[in-house]
Amino acid sequence: MSALRSGTAVLTATALATTLAGCGGDEQPARSKVVTVLAAASLTEAFTDLKKQVEDAHPDVEVRVSFAASSTIVQQVNNHADADVVALADEKAGKTLKPDVLGSAAPRLFATNRLMIATPADNPAHVTGLDSLTSSSVDTVLCAPQVPCGRAAKSVLAKGHVTPHVVSYEQDVKATLAKVRLGEADAAIVYVTDVTAAGTSVRGVALKPDQNVTTRLPIYALNDDEGTRAFVDAVTSSTGRKVLTTRGFGAP
């Protein structure tokens, strides 16, 4: 953690404690240790759950999580963006992190993911599987090729020998799914976890097992600070596994 950020965190915590004391009511513990987490968009729901668990278990730790495409996160970290923990949607993204920012940090695989077709809830194009996407009347949206969900979708399409009618490529999996949720596309290839998170707002259409691919998610601890250890331990613990499984992720 940088000296500047540490100083800011202490000042913020002091101001908070003073304000609470002046309000009379029950005082809350000052969160003097800040951990900054940069995580793939597909981890939004799971890491939001884990953030709360870590903060409940460690009253002096504040977890700040920012979600984006893995390619964006890598670019930010390689440009020395402030980060304590980095969690990406596939291993290939991690291999593009520069050694000078990683230092001695080694990836820990903590989950896996699979792909699924998502359609609007009423499935107006009657998509039944990968072959349906070949029709010019089925507007399909994919993740951009440089992000993990785009790479995985490309592999799925190659396995199925399918060339879809693609109307747009989106910056991350959440933006891709949003096109379907808003009725701006008939189908999208996204992660199972994102279909799960969307609930009844979309319909999931399973891919054949021999067409699907599995991505493995790495997490990096960029320092040995207490907050960093607390968050990474939570993600890789049995409790973290339960949270991830509930959100649709598989074991690493």
Automatic annotation (TrEMBL):
InterPro entries: ModA, ModA/WtpA. Keywords: Metal-binding, Signal. PROSITE patterns: PROKAR_LIPOPROTEIN. Pfam families: SBP_bac_11. NCBIfam families: modA. Belongs to the bacterial solute-binding protein ModA family. This is Molybdate ABC transporter substrate-binding protein.
